[in-house]
Amino acid sequence: MDKLYKSLMRGSEGAEVTWRAEWVKAAAAQNDLFAIVEAIPTVRQIARQALQQELQQRQKNIDIDNVYINITDQSNEIERRPSGKLSEVLLHCLDNNVLPSYLAGGGDGVFHLPDTVGEQMRVKGFSIIEAEEAITYTLRNLESSLRSEMTKYWAAPVKVATTEKTGLTNKQALQQAYNVVLTAELSLKAMAGFLDHGMATRYCYLLNLENGAGAYNVVVSPESDSRTSLVPGFVLDNSMRADPQMKLLNEPTGYVIHTPGNGFEYFARNLDVHATLLARVSASGSKIAFPKATQSVSAHCVDAYLKGQLETLASLMRDRKGQTRAFSRVLQDNQMLSVMRADIGRRFDQVQAELKRTEWPLWLKNGGNTLQQRYVELEHSMEKYHSDYRVVFDRCFSFKDYVLRCFSEWAMSALGEQLEAETIKVRSVHKMQLGGRTLEQVDNRTLTEFIIFGLHDEGYKAEISLTGMPPGSKLSAAALEQWLNNINVRSQFVSSLSADPSPEFAQAYRDHLHSNIEFALFVARHSGIFSETEAKVIERALAGDSSVSIRGLKLSLQIPGPALKGVMVFQAPETRNYLVYLITPAGKSVFMTFADAFALNKWFESAMTADRQYAASLIHPDYLHDAGSLRGASRHSTHYLYKLDTQYSDLFPNGTAPLLNDVKVAYQSELALHKTIAPAPYRYLGIEPRKRYARLNTELKALSTVEARDNAFPSFERFTHDAVKQNLESLLRSRGRNIEINPDQIIVQTDDFQKSVTDLLIEGLSFEAANPAYPSKYDPRYFLTDGHPAIDQLDIRDLSSLSKTFRPGDRYTEMLNTDYLDGKHPGYAFKRAVHAKKIRCQMHYDLLSNYIDGRFGSDIFLALQRVVGNLKEDVYHYPINDSSAEGDEGLYEFNIGKTGLTKSRDRTVAGVYILRMNILGQFHDWLYTPDAPDGVAYRPINDFIPSIRFQYGPMRDYYFDRVAIVDQKVINDYFDDLAASGKPLPPVKTQERAKLNNLFTFHDRRVRRALSDIDERTTSLKEVIAGLVYDGLIKVVNVISLAVPPIGSVAVAVQMMKSVYDGAQAQRRGDYSAALGYGADALIGLFTLGQAATAGASAEVIKQVTNVQRSFLGLVDDARSAAQFVAEAAGHKAADQQLIDFFTELMKDRVTGISQTIVR
Question: Which is a Pfam family this sequence falls into (predicted)?
C-alpha cells in the first residue's frame, strides 16, 4: 500500500493522500495557471488587429483577409515583396524580419482575387504604396501594440468567473493560481523529505500570508536577463523578523528559499542562504540583497514575471538578429510567459525525481551511482515513450477528442465560429405529468456530455438552454438540436475506427512496449527476480530468437477466446521457470517467475477474481459475458471466479511475428474495447430507439428520485423524531409555552443509560420517574444540550410517561395505512402514479440495456417489449380469472414453493415477475430480475432452479430477501431441498390467477408487503424499516448520479465511459463507482469524511464529496437518517452524535449536483 502524507495544498489541507494523488492535483493547479496565461490574445491576433485599426485610421474600409497583394516581377527583391492576403503578408514580414518594399509602377498592387494583376480586379482607392505604409507602420509600432494589449488583459476581469475568482482581474487570478502552484510544490517537496510535516506547515503558513510578513525578496545587482536570473526569488523566515533588510546571522533559526530552477530549499542559517545564491550568480561582482517583502509572495513572483515579460519583449524587438524561428513564435513564447512555464516544469520534474527516490527498493538504494543512473534513464525513456504512445493512441481512440472535433467542425461549417464544447453548458428540462402534478427533471451538463447523451425521441423532447458561448455567437438550442437530430456520436465514433493500425501507431506501440519490457527486465535482473540466465532469455526474445517460446494465457471457456491482453509467458530450454511479463492490477509492467503452470495460473486466477476491473482489462470484451462465474455468500459480497486453461497458446506460432512486430493483436484488442462505447446491437437500433434509450434514462432518474425522496417510507429515526417533537410541542402549548423542540437535544439520564429522547423511544427503553416529594440525587433527570432553549414546563415525569406509552412502531404502522394506502389521502394518487410509471420505465430501460449487452436476440426483445408496453396504468379494476392454468401472454407474479404445498396464499417474490410471450405460436417464459447481482434483468425461467442449486452464488439471497418475512422459513427449506436434490425439475409455471394487468396496483402491493413484514418482524422495527429505505436509496443512487450513463451494463463499457473525463473531472462528474455497483462504497467514503471532520480536518476536506455522494445526500432530508445509513454501510450499528453533527453541517451547504428533480 502506498504511503500516505498530509497535504498542504489549498483546499485539501490536512487530507491524507499519496504523493501521486497530490501530483495529480498539482498538475491540475498548473493547468489552471497556464489557462489564464493562454487566454492572452496571441501575437498574430494583436498584429492583425493593429493593422485593421491602422487602416481604419487611414479611412480605408479594407478586409485584410479578403484582399490580396499580387506582384509581377518575381526577380526583384522578392523577399521584400511577399504576395498573398494582406493579413498573410503582414505575418510574413513579421516572421522574416523584413519591411515591405513594392514596385509602385511595376504592376504590384492590391486585388480582390489572388494570382491576378488585371485592372478590373484591382481594389479601388487602395494603392500598393498605401498597403506598404500601413504594414510598415504596424510592424514598427508592434511593440507598443503588444504592451498595450498585455496591460489591458492583466487589468481586465476574468472571463470565466468561478466562486473563487469572482471580482478578480486576470492579474489577481494569476497571483491566486500561482499561490496554489507554490503550495502544491511545497506540499510535494515536504512529501519528498524536504522537511517534516510540522515545519512544512509552518512555512506554508508564511508562504500564504497576504502581506508577505514572513518573507524577504531576493534582489541581484546588477540585474541580469530575466530569462536566466534568480528572480523571482524569496526567502521565508521562520522567525518572521521585521527588519527592512534581512540581516545575515549565524543563528540556526531556519530559512526556506525559493529560486528559479531549484524551487524550495531549506537552510538553518541565512549566511548559508547568501553564500549559496552568490555562488549561483554567473557574473562576477554581483551583489545579493534581501529587502523585506511588502506584498504576498505570489504577488511578488507574478509581478517579477510580468516585468520580465515586458523587458524580454523590448529586448527581442531591439535585437532580432540570429533568430532561427519565425519571429511571431518567438514573441508568442514570451507572450505565454514561457520563462515561468519552463521554470515550473523544471521544478516539478526535480520534485518528482525526489519523490520517486523515496520509493526506491533497497537493492536500488544500495546500488552504485552507475546502476541508479541507468535505472533513471530507463524509467525516463519508458515514461517518454509512454507519453508519445498516449498521444498517438488518443488520435486513434480518444472518444472525447472525437466528440470535440465533430462539434468544432460542425460549428465552423454551420455557424462560421470556432467554439469549444467543454466551455459551453447545457441545461435540459424534461417534464412529465403524473397524478395531477408535474415532474421536472433538470440536468446540467457540459456540451460535450450533452452531445454524447443525445436528444430524446420525438414527442418527448426536453427543453434545452445554452450558456457559456462567446458574445454574439450564433449557436442556439434550435441549431444544436437540428444538428443532433439525425446523428449519434457514439455510433459514428465506433464506425470511424480504422480496422488496422496506422504506421504511426505501430511505431509508437513498438517503442512503448520495448521500453516497458526493457525497464521491467532491468528491475527483474538487478532485484533478484531473474537470474542472469533468465535475463538473457528475455534479451534473446527481444532480439527475435525463435528458440525462445512466447505463449499466452487463455480462459477456460466452452468456446476458446483470444489470449489475455498484455500477458506473455517466456520459456527456453535452459530454464525451467515460467518467465512472465504482465501488467499488474496497479498498472505497472513487471516480470515475474513461476516454478510451474499451476502456480502461474493460480496467481492470475486470484488476481482477476479479486478485481473485476483488472479481469476486464485482460479479457477480450466479446468474451466478458461468459468469463467467470458469479460467486458470493450474500448480495453485498459478490465476485467473479475465473479459471484459466492449462494449455497455453503460442502467441507467435512458427515465428510468424517477432515479439515487437505483432502490433495488430494489440490494436485489435483496443479496437474491440472501444467498440463497447456503442455495441453492435446499439448501433443497429436506429436513431429513434437510441433517442428513446436516452429519454428512458432521464425519466428513470426523475421517477427514481421522487420515489426515494418524496414518496419513500420515512426512516424510523426521522419518523420518531418528528412524532415526539410534535407531541412535546403540543404538550407545552397546552401549558402556555409556544416553543420549538428538538428531542435530539433533550438527554435523559438514569442509572442505566444516558440517551436523547429520540433514541430512547427508538430503542424501546422506558424508565420510572421518582416521586417529586422524595427527591434524591440518583433520580432520573433530563438536561438540554447544544443551546436548546430552556423548557421549565417539561417535567421528567412527562418523559417517563412518554417512554411507556408513545409506541412509535404502532404510530408508524398507522401512518403507512393513512398516508400510503388511503385513497382519499391528498398524496395517494401521485404516489401510485409515480410508482407505476417508474416500474414500466425501469422495465423498458433494463430491456434495452440487456438487449444492447447481447443477452437475447431481436425476437425476444420485441416480444418482451410488447408485454411491457401492454400493461395498463389506470384506475379500472381488471377482473382476474381465478384459475391455475398457465394463461396467455402477459405479466405474472413470481410465486415459488413446493409443488402441491398447501397454503392460504401465494409466496411471492416481490419485484420479480414472469413475462409470458407468444412468439410464432410458441409460449416463452422469462423472469424479470431487476437489480440482480449479476446485472441481468431478463433471463429464461429455466435459469431459476440452477441458480438456487448453485450454492456459491448470490442469487439465492437475491430471491430470498424479496420473500415476505412470514414465508421465509418455508422458502428457505424449499431452497435447501432444491440444493440437496439433483433430479431435474420442471420450471416454475405461470397461473392465470397471478396475472398482473394494471401497474396502478403495484403501489398498494408494495405498502401491504411492508406492513406484513413489520407485523411479522423477527428483528427490531428499526432494522426492518431501515432495510426497506436503505436498499431503495442505494439503487436510486446508482441511477441518478451520472451525467453520461454507459450503454448497456457490461463492466468494460462502464470503464470506457470514464475516458470522457480528465483528471479533476473524473472525481466530480465521472464517478462511475455506483454504475459498477459500488453505491455502498460511496457511503463508506462519507463515513470516512465524517471521521476526518471529527479529527479536525479542514472544512474544505470534508466537503470533497463525489457526485454519487451528492446524489445520496440529495435524497435524504435529515442529517440523523443520513448518518445512520452511512454508519451501517461502514459496519457500525449506530451513528454517534459527532457523525450526525458532521452531516448537519454538510447538508447545510449542499453542492448542487448534475441533476435536480422538481415536483410542482
Answer: ToxA_N
Burial class of residue 609 in the structure, from the number of CB atoms within 10 Å of its CB (0-12 exposed, 13-18 middle, 19+ buried)? middle
Q: Which residue has the higher pLDDT, 152 or 1040?
A: 152
Tell me the C-alpha to C-alpha distance, in Å, between residue 595 and each of 471, 522, 554, 575, 592: 68, 21, 19, 10, 10
C-alpha 720/C-alpha 449 separation (Å) is: 42
For 441-458, the DSSP string reads: EEEEEEHHHHHHH-PPPT
Supply the pLDDT for residue 166.
Answer: 67
- Tell me the pTM: 0.79
Residue 1073 pLDDT exceeds 70: no
In angstroms, rounded to a whole number, what is the distance separating the alpha carbons of residues 607 and 614?
A: 8
Residues in contact with 431: Cβ distance below 8 Å, sequence separation at least 6, in sequence order: 438, 439, 440, 441, 463
Helix (H, G, I), strand (E, B) or coil at 872: strand
Whole-angstrom Cα distance, residue 265 to residue 263? Answer: 7
- Residues near 989 by Cβ (< 8 Å), separated by ≥ 6? 886, 925
Contact between 77 and 95 under an 8 Å Cβ cutoff? The reply is: no
Three cell numbers, residue 570 = 517466456
User: What are residue 854's phi and psi, to 5 degrees?
Assistant: 80, 25
| Helices 19-38/170-191 angle, 10° precision | 160
Q: What pLDDT band is residue 776 in, cutting at 50, 70 and 90?
A: confident
For the ranges 318-332, 646-660, 724-738, 779-793, the lowest mean pLDDT is seen at 646-660
Mean pLDDT of 1074-1092: 46
What is the mean predicted confidence (pLDDT) over 221-246?
A: 82
Measured in residues, the chain has a length of: 1160
> pLDDT value at position 614?
87
Q: How many CA atoms lie within 13 A of 649 on its CB side?
A: 15
Q: What is the DSSP letter of 65?
A: T
If phi > 0 it is left, if psi is from -120 to 50 it is alpha, else beta; for residue 219 that is beta
Per-residue three-class SS string for 400-444 = HHHHHHHHHHHHHHHHCCCCCHHHCEEEEEEEEEECCEEEEEEEE
Integer Rg of the chain from CA: 36
